[in-house]
Description:
Elements (H helix, E strand, L loop, with lengths): L16 H5 L8 E9 L3 E8 L2 E8 L4 H16 L17 E3 L2 E7 L13 H21 L7 H4 L6 H17 L5 H20 L12 E4 L8 E4 L2 E5 L6 E4 H12 L9 H15 L3 H17 L2 H7 L10 H13 L1 H9 L1
Amino acid sequence: MPRSYDASGAPEAPVALDALLRQYEGAGEPLSCEPVAQGLLNRGYHLATTSGRYFLKHHLDGDSDAITHQHGAIARLAALGLPVAPPLADTDGRTVVVIGGGCYALHPWVDGRHRDGAQLSCAQSRRLGALLGLVHTCLERVMLQSPVPEAEARVESADPTDTFELIEELLGLARASRPRDTFDELAEHRLLERRALLERHAHRRPEAGAEPATGWVHGDFHPLNLLYRGAEPAAIIDWDRLGVQPRAEEAVRAAAIFFVRSRGTLELSKVRPYARAYRAATGATPDELAAAVHRVWWERLNDFWMLRWRYQLRDRRADPQFPAAAALSVWWTREYEAVCDAFTG
């Protein structure tokens, strides 16, 4: 882990930031290094030096070849004019620095803030859809020579039999949780509710081969991975999940995060211009979006990652997102036709 430095420059915890910065020409000496992001795939730090400010990324998976591949894609996207922040190259031209077995990348610091759908106007929602469409079409160009991983090219929908087993396991963990709190009560309620929904809708599992066209996608396009400066996007960040998926599904999945309200409904008045702009930018047809809506709805109906984090991994970072996300699956099932119309009309 990088050292955490206080305002005076005194290190608070062991690690070699000095050695890392020496590998970059003109990077300066460290003044402060504060954590700003913590995920399963990486750690992020706001690094201030005598030469400027940087975003220091610690890639936890340690696959320097895969990280370098991502970096190359980001650089090529920047050359096409997309708002991204490619990593800096060290004195040997490498964008991944390995120190003590850890993989690090140094990016320019981007001033900006995150904005969710509630903070976007309909016009800005339209620009968001166009931006994601541009990401997909530009990735198609810059990844032209990159082979599609066979495992990623095969996309199967969730098997409800497996989901029923998971529900039973999570129910047991939620009921056994001590001290029991309101989250545990809500989790139990939603698990029982979802089990009943799945029993009624199991016959609607998407058929194999019915997925929309696959292609290279960002893989994690949501408000925390998009920085705004004023009203305009300044940088799309965190490309760790760059991969091959049905592209229209990323558009639907992103909308379900950007435009979800706190009570678990989608702001369809903003989804509609967003989806129209995405279709215009990519040439995706209404049928593709309809198939994506169905597959993402089914995915949401079978997905319990937030509860798995809490009860299986003892990680509560996703707890605040759970009430709205869990309610969305119920609302989406009830308003299925209206949601589909918003994406295809």
